[in-house]
Amino acid sequence: MSTSSLGRRLMLVATAVVVATLGAALWVMESPSKQRDRRIDERRTGELTAIANAVDAWRASKASLPPSLAILAAEPGASLAVVDPVDGTPYEYRIVSTSRYRLCARFATTTSSGDADGAPMFRATTEWQHPAGRHCFERKAGRSDDDAPAGAVVR
Question: Which CA distances in Å does 35 have to 108, 115, 122, 127, 136?
Fold first, then answer.
């Protein structure tokens, strides 16, 4: 066997290994647009966390839930994002009872899908796990035990 023939075979094997490695990497990795969607959904859950913290603080200081996100965001010193970072639609906020409320957003990805081993593909805290599409989270503000329905007379 000549040296040039051996060199060609080694080059062919090395090329095959590189192509196989690139193919495997592309198969395992998500597309750039899917990665972008996940980052935006992480931003959404971060903004919802900030809203939930602000609602808790409002209830602690005023003994009621804020009437709207716009009023909550207008509080002095507040720096809340109350609209979706992509399309600018407001996050939904609805009072359910004297201490419970619902926050809704539209997500591009899901946190419940897993990889081949069943592990979450995008790690979100359990309280903010969501499917793709519109999803609502029901939250309880503060540590109060009273929980009368919204609009009910609280004595």
Answer: 11, 15, 10, 22, 23
Question: b/e per residue, 85-98, with b = 16+ CB within 10 A?
Answer: eeeeeebebebebb
Query: How far apart, in whole angstroms, are the C-alpha atoms of residue 122 and residue 50?
Result: 20
pTM over 0.90: no
pLDDT tens per residue, range 102-119: 999 999 999 864 443 344
| Residue 26 neighbours by CB distance under 10 Å | 9
Between the CA of residue 21 and those of 24, 29, 33, 35, what are the distances in Å? 5, 12, 22, 21
3-state secondary structure of 75: coil
